[in-house]
What we know:
- The complex is a heterodimer of chains A (426) and B (333).
- Chain A has 426 residues and is an alpha/beta fold.
- In chain A, 37% of the residues lie in helices and 8% in strands.
- At the A-B interface, helix 7, helix 8 and helix 14 of A face helix 3, strand 3, helix 4 and helix 5 of B.
Amino acid sequence: MPGMPFRIQHPTLYKRIVVSHNSVLCLGPSAGVGPSIDRKRVSSFAPSIVSPKSKTKSKKSSASEEPEDFQEDIDLKAFQDHRVNKRLTAEEKLDLYTLMVRIRRFEERAVRGYQQGKIGGFLHDYIGQESVAAGSIPLMEGEDQMITAYRDHGQALAVGMSMKECMAELYGRHTGCSKGKGGSMHFFAPDKHYWGGHGIVGGQTPLGAGLAYALKYRGIKACALCFLGDGAVNQGAFHESLNLAQLFELPVVYIIENNGYSMGTSQDRSSTYVDCLAKRAEGYNMAWDYGNGHLLYEVRARVLEAMERARKKSLPTLLELKTYRYRGHSIADANFEKYRTKEEIKRIRETLDPIMVFQNLLIEEGLLDEDKVKEIDKAARQEALEAAEFADQSPYPPEEEIVTDVYWTTDNPGKHDNQGRIFFND
Amino acid sequence: MAETETATNMREIAYREAVREALAEEIERDENVVIMGEEVAQYNGAYKVTEGLWKKYGDKRVVDTPISEAGFIGMGIGASMLGIRPVMELMFFSFAYVAWDQIVNNAATIRYMSGGLINIPIVIRGPANAGTNVGSTHSHTPENLFANFPGLKVVCPATPYDAKGLMKTAIRDNDPVYVLENTLLYGLKGPVPEEEYTIPLGLAEVKREGTDLTIVAHGRAVLSSLKAAEILEAEHELSVEVVDLRSIRPLDEETILNSVRKTNHALYVEETKPFCGVGAQISHLIQSQAFDYLDAPVARLSAIDAPAIYSDPLEKIQLPNPQRIIQVALGMF
Ligand SMILES: Cc1ncc(C[n+]2csc(CCOP(=O)(O)OP(=O)(O)O)c2C)c(N)n1
Ligand SMILES: [Mg+2]
């Protein structure tokens, strides 16, 4: 519940992952080429949405054109009966719902803080995409790790970071998760296996491979989730990472949060692709999947499959989840209604809003009613408000903090025989 | 002191062997140490630094990577966050630029931006020198660039002894350390003890004592300076002290300043380019901390300020050599 670390544990999964895989690890290509995998889309599920038609970018679509997949019929109840969802208890379902509400209310409160001038710089909110973080991250268990880009608040709350430490970080306060040194784009909580928060588009994707590398190197059967945007798929470092991930058979799941736009550039104006972005994985002989990221149950099902592939077989997956952001790229995006139509935003909000869709399902399942919805919402708003108050009352980091946390050596005097000067502040 | 030191089991080994010994010893000492890079394993290293390591330690500890510097260095950084100690070889540091974001953004800032929660104990090593007749793209000397990033440590060993001792310390260090070697030095032999030793980062060494002029240098320029010092002494009766920085960041200011206070003359010699170079930083240090001791302006000799030229005789002129060092030194008096 609000404020509490959020991680649903699934004891049954532990049994499942103890499928032996080679524990004498041979990570280099010298270990031989990995088993050839099915180059086709790996998901065994019927797609709940039909992926967009092949686009080899012959024409530039205008901002008013809508992504085709939104025009398809969508089964909002898809994956309700998938094992990963069937095993959820009523309480766990409500926790997942609550998490999405908390993310949204947190972001709205942060936007307000920005408008009040309490938060500076960039603020990339997660409103509309909540189901991706809430659908995937609670599936983490044991030694699983994750890393993401700069749109990182939703993931932070999902791993169990408190609204207070997150809000305080936005406010640049010493009580923030990074002591006010990282800001909106650079949240970290390694104790919760959350390795950032990365501001350079695509820059975190090799790090994600590295987390998986470390797990494999140590013989730990776990996986790393690495989130990226639909714009990041065009970064070279990402493609290098895909090649490395498959070559070294790393237990990493790359999750493209495809919200249709990279800043003001639509997917069709930035990417050539066949069917969808994830299909690029075929060029790397890597398993891939594509799904509707608005639907929490579907996210859980597809992410779990990919995580299992990573944990059991030590193989990577490229998973694309279609999602949408309602607001600007960052709060400073005054054009957010110009590179797409207001109708597009409205229609997706009204038909596919992840909180609304899941709320309806839970109401249908008899787990939610109007009162409970209000109660959860009120608690989330209250928690966000308290986080803002906490942030506001927190001190800024003292000036000495400018030069701490730069080097381990300087922060640990005496533990190291280092003798020279490493700061030059004259 | 000197006696016992020579009495320890010194032997002459080449610079590349010294680096290799450091790698091997650290592989054996710490199971988290893994060597990665292009051609480091089966091919035995483009410059044979890692020769034999793959055969001895196998696929897990010595790993060939594809030609994806951003990818594999970023992967190393990610792995280091979880406690692996990757020692990444760049075939040339000239190739660092395709991995620039990983090298100077992720490696240098993650500890800071996480409020000290995460360490990046990675080593990136490889040759970083001009003078091998390979043209500009392969002749970069980026030590000054890296040293400009708080969060990074930069080491430039000039001798086999320093190469081994500094490499071992770099691997054990909890911060990112970039060790810039030199292909022209790989074959150079020098005394290295049989016994294990390490050299702290941030500790310069007076490689030759003198009273009239302090030459401060790093990397191969130290050796050119030592040669010049011999000639200056023999032919010009000038007693030259040569201070080898060894580590550029952290920087041992005291050793530099003590020497300059004694000789009252300072000359910086470096093979990197002059503009915003290491020498610029050191001359600033000297003028701000030892101004009253100076009998002449701080002098500086760097590579001639142009992209590295290919043509062999001109390339030799472009880099500081003993003749040019002597010229500049004499001009100070
Ligand atoms: C290397 C780099 N180039 C450009 C930027 C500026 N920038 C920040 S976010 C962004 C758009 C990225 O879009 P996408 O990957 O789709 O992620 P989203 O914002 O939609 O979550 C751009 C161009 C950056 N941060 N890093
Ligand atoms: Mg996007």
